[in-house]
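Input structure tokens:
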């Protein structure tokens, strides 16, 4: 998880650099799309921090309980935060969402599973036939919509974790 943690740590620098790059875009539509994507990535980063804080405040003995799902979720967060070409981003995120859905614990988490299935559905888009000028509008919109769905999935996961931790605390 070290690589993924580094991606999350470097996010403030990324935002600063991205804001500077966005400010230099002369096309209003392209700039608006990039700003939207940055907002969605910021929301996802915030949820990643919330998840990390929940894990940090719990005892190490609980880590093994959700280890596979935790690893897969961190991979999804990293893929979602990654700023790369649309097709590479889509492929990486699709792969990591599939890992989350394949985690053994997901069989007992229908609400969370459904949230991740919505993320996967939003990635089922092919823009290869779309003209370049339209792609500049559609790609950021697709990224934004997918990241918003991913934020919802991570919130569901964090709520699930909080419920588990509260039950454990009450049982002591």
């Amino acid at each position: 998880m070290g690589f993924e943690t580094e991606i999350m740590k470097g996010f403030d620098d990324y935002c600063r650099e991205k804001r500077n790059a966005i400010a230099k875009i002369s096309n209003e539509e392209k700039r608006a799309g990039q700003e939207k994507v940055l907002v969605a990535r910021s929301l996802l980063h915030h949820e990643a921090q919330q998840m990390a804080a929940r894990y940090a405040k719990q005892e190490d003995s609980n880590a093994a309980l959700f280890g596979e799902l935790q690893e897969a979720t961190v991979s999804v967060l990293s893929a979602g935060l990654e700023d790369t070409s649309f097709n590479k981003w889509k492929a990486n995120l699709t792969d990591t969402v599939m890992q989350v859905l394949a985690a053994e614990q997901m069989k007992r988490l229908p609400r969370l599973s459904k949230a991740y299935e919505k993320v996967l559905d939003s990635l089922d888009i092919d823009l290869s036939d779309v003209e370049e000028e339209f792609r500049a509008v559609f790609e950021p919109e697709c990224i934004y919509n997918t990241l918003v769905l991913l934020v919802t999935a991570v919130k569901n996961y964090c709520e699930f974790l909080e419920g588990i931790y509260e039950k454990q605390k009450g049982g002591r």
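The chain has one domain: 2-170. The CA atoms of residues 22 and 32 lie 9 Å apart.
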